[in-house]
Every structure is written in structure tokens, then in C-alpha cells.
Amino acid sequence: MADNGLAPMRIGEKQINLLVGGALFALLPIAWLQYRWISEVSEADQQRRTIELKGALERISADTDRDAGKLHATLIGPPGEDDYSLEERIGNYRAAEDGVPLLRILRLRSTAEEWSAEVWDEEKKRMIPAAVPGWWKGRPYRNGPVHSDPAALLGPAFAGESGEVGFIVLELDEGRVAEEYLPRLLRRHLGEEYAKEYSIRLLKQGGKEAGDASIGIFRRIQRGAAMAGPPPGRRGPPRWKKKGVGGPPGLDMVGDGIWRVAARYQGGSLEAVVARTRTRNLVLSFVTLLFLGMALTAMGYALRRSQRLARLQLEFTAGVSHELRTPLAVIISAGDNLAGGWVKDPLKVREYGALVRDEGTRLTGMVDQVLRFSEFEAERMPLEKRALLVSDVMEQIEREMRPVAERQGCEWDATYENGTFAGDRGALHVAVRNLVENGLRHGGGKWIGLRGEKTGKSVAFTVEDRGSGISPADLPHLFDAFYRGVESRAQQRKGSGLGLALVDRIARGHGGSVRVANKPDGGARFTLTIPCE
Questions:
Q1: C-alpha 67: how far from its chain's center?
Q2: Count: domains in the chain
Q3: Is 280 part of a structural domain of the chain?
Q4: DSSP character for 181?
Q5: Which of 246, 268, 290 is the last residue of a domain?
Q6: pLDDT tens for residues 248-274?
């Protein structure tokens, strides 16, 4: 294949760390910008809500002024010589369902600087004598068509040819205003579900306000131009002017109104509601950024782990290839010598045969170990647990591995007891044998110790050596698949990196564990613990 000058890009662990760190650092200005944006949006939302609420209250106030004007024009009207028959007005009046509710209708007259009163009797359909209200006597006077305490609409009245000056008083029913009239206006301008969003209070003028917005209602009465001059048929100023009892209400008098309507958001003040919304949005935003940061961190970890696994797999492939090539080369060489007739001495023939057997056994063991590991990883190898004695495992290991240790000049020291437990004999044999082979390969070749004992509710198989121990850098990764220690790689020791990983899988398959530690007096200690079921 021709070289086109392009090489595959390889990202190292340092580059991955820089990439993830840069991405996490980039989240900081994003978080700050989100905070600014959410704050600005919250302030704009607060202003919008305030404007909408005040606009709705202004429309409600305008409606009350219009309804009050209609009521005033219908029952009081402009002052006239014949008073346009108040009884006739009341008799012809039919209150609309959405009109302003009345409590009572009074007519007040002045005679020789004294006042008399009449009230409308609905049953008799006429005005009947009544006591002059106390509040009327002390009123400092009569400077407008709207009265707040009690809530009433006022207008002048003239009593026939006598020239007496009087007033008509329409007292409003505060209870029905609060319970019937005002809710209708609120539903019209704030929606049918306004009570879920707003808390509405009807307050007397001068009362303590507590709301995000408030406005006066029944602030003014607009009347026609007929009030500007004397009553029809009269010359000169009207008689109320001559008697000096004060003038009629103004044509368009604007004041604070009879009541104030205060609106407050159900969750508290509008500022508090918006603040909570902003806080909630900020929390959601930062949680999102947190999860994004965690995802980036996890991605970096996965990349590093994938890279390390790929490196270990490459090392495994190289190591296994070398390990397979060595026995195959020996077998081929011995077979070639035997087939070519180069070896004729019976003793040498037996030696060559033993060599082929041993290398074939070694080759078979390596292939079997790889297959076992792949089956455990794919969970295709269920364990067949049966009642076992500790000696069932230990005796087989001793028969197989003691001659190997002694041929290497390694002292064999094994002790065990006959505790009973449940386990897969074949899998445990592989696990303990791997620990022994690991100790013979890396333990210095001087001494190997094997213990099997039942302690409490578990059985422990312990393999020790008196070598140089395990590097602290290798301890966390010792049971990872394809991992080979730094010293093993440097000295090119035989091994596939699967032996201890297989031990770990077998231990976990039994519900147990395998641990490793360096001994204080030198060497390493591996302990395989299996629970007794």
C-alpha cells in the first residue's frame, strides 16, 4: 500500500483531559450569560405583569364610573323644577343584573335650615318619612356627587314650587358590591380563573393597602350640560344658590373614589413571584449545566477508559501472539526434527515427545483461559455450584503445581482444612491455579505458600510469595482485563493479562471477592474469599 502521507490522528490522555477541561471551563461563561438572560427576562416579565395588572384595574375603575353615571342619570338626573317625580323614576327603574347594587334611596330636604328625610319603601312603592342620617348632619358639604362613608351617590333635588332645596342619596350595598358586582368586573378583565392567580381586596379609602397594584373605584360622575345653568323655566341663579346651602355636585369631579381595589398575586408580591420563578429557572439551568458537565466528565472518563482498554487490548494481542508463537515454534521444531529422522536416540525421542506435550499443554491452557474469560464476560458460562470440601480444590492444585514449583527450585508450603462450602469446582480450580502460577512467575521463585481455611461464613484461599511485592501504581489495576504490570512489561515476562482478571470474575460469580496486599516482610498476598451457602 502506498503511503499517502496521512497518518491516523491519535488523541492521548493528556489531550483528552485538556479537551474535557476546556469544555467544562467553557460552561462558566454560559452559566453567567444564562444568569444575566434569566434576570433580564424576569425583570421584563415583572414589568409586563405590572402593566397588565394596572391596565386591567384602570378598566375596572372606568367601568365603575360608567355604571355609577348610568345609575345617577337614571334615578337623579339633572335638577329640574318638578324634580321629575322621584317616585316615578324609581318606579320605572329596573336594576340591570350587572348594575351597581343599591342598599336604599333617600331624599333629604331643607326647611328653615333644618333637614327632613324620606326613604323609598319597596312594598308601598312610595317615599315614606325617615330619620335624617347622622352622617348627613355633620357633612361639611356637599362638594361632590360621590360620598365614601357611607358609600353613596348624591344629587340635588327641587321640591315643586316651594323652592325648597334637597338632595337625593343613593346608598350602595357594600356587601353585594364585594360579592357580586366586583367579581363580575374582575372576571371580565382578568379572566374567569382570576382567583387562582390574584388575591383581590376591597378596601375603604384610607385603609392600609397591601398589593402589587391598587386603584379607586366610583371616582366620578359625569353629567350633562343641563346642570351648568338654572333649572328650566327659571331666570337667574337657581334657588339652592339663594338659600346658601352649598352648590350641586360638579360636572366632572375626579377624586380617590369610594373604595380601593387592591390586587396581589397569590404567591405573594409580584416581585416575590418573579423572584421565585427566576430562582427556579436558574436552578433548572444550573442543574442542566451540571448534568452537561457530568456528561462531559463521564465522556472524558469513557474516552480515557476506552483508550486504555484499546491499549491493553493491543498489548494483549502482542503478548498473546508472542506467547502462542513460542510454544508453536518449539512444537514445529521438535516435530520437524522427529519427522526428518534427525533424532534417533530413544532417550532423545522421549525428551522431544515430552517437550511437545508440555508446550502443547501450555498452548492449550492459554487458549482455554482466553475462552473462559470471554465466556465470563459474555455471561455464557453459568457456574454449577455443588457441595465441596476445601481439600477437593487444594489437593488437585497441589498435584498439578507442586512439581512445577519444585522444578523451579521453589519451596512449596501448603496447608488446608476440610471445611464445607458450595462452589463450582472447575472454576475455583482455575482461579486458585492462576493465583499460584502468578506467584511462581512474579514472586521471585524462592517460596510459595498456599492456605485453605473456613472462617465464619466464608472460605478463604490464600496464595503468598516472598518476592519484591507489587508496585503501588499496579495495585488498583491488577484485576483489570489485559492489564500487565509495569515491571512485567519492562522485563517482557510471559503472560496475557487475563489470569487475575479471570480470578476476579470467578470470585464475583460466586458472590465473593479477591484482594491483594503487599506483606510487611516482603512479597504479595492474594486472598480469594467465597461465601458458604
A1: 50
A2: 2
A3: no
A4: I
A5: 268
A6: 433 345 577 889 898 887 765 556 666
How many Å apart are CA 481 and CA 418, to the nearest integer?
33
Domain annotation covers residue 356: no
Sign of CA dihedral 317, 320, 324, 325: positive
- Confidence class of residue 237 from pLDDT cuts 50, 70 and 90? very low
DSSP E strands: which ranges in 13-143?
Answer: 102-111, 114-121, 126-130
The residue type at 530 = I
- 51-85 burial, b for 16+ CB within 10 Å, e for fewer? eebeebbeebbebbbebbbebbebbbbbbbbebee
Give the Å distances, CA to CA, from 170 to 34, 70, 76, 167: 58, 12, 9, 10
Single out the residue of 385, 492, 496, 389 nearest to residue 434, CA to CA.
496
How far is Cα 510 from Cα 385, in angstroms, rounded to an integer?
A: 8
Cell output for 369 = 483461559
- Global pTM reads 0.46
In a domain, 279, yes or no: no
Question: Per DSSP, which regions of 112-224 are E strands?
Answer: 114-121, 126-130, 146-148, 151-159, 164-172, 198-204, 213-217
39 falls within a domain: no
d(CA 313, CA 319): 9
pLDDT in tens, 130-145: 998 888 876 644 556 8
Q: Is the pLDDT of residue 462 over 90?
A: yes
* DSSP 3-state of 144: coil
Q: What is the mean pLDDT of the chain?
A: 75
**Cα–Cα distance between 126 and 88 in angstroms, integer?**
9
Instruction: For residues 120 and 104, give the distance between their C-alpha atoms in angstroms, rounded to a whole number.
Output: 7
Task: Name the residue range of residue 425's domain.
Answer: 382-531
CATH number, domain at 411? 3.30.565.10
Residue (of 430, 445, 413) closest to 498 by Cα position: 430
Q: For residues 386 and 264, state if they share a domain.
A: no
Final residue of a structural domain among 213, 245, 268: 268
Helix axes 425-442, 390-407, angle to 10 degrees: 30
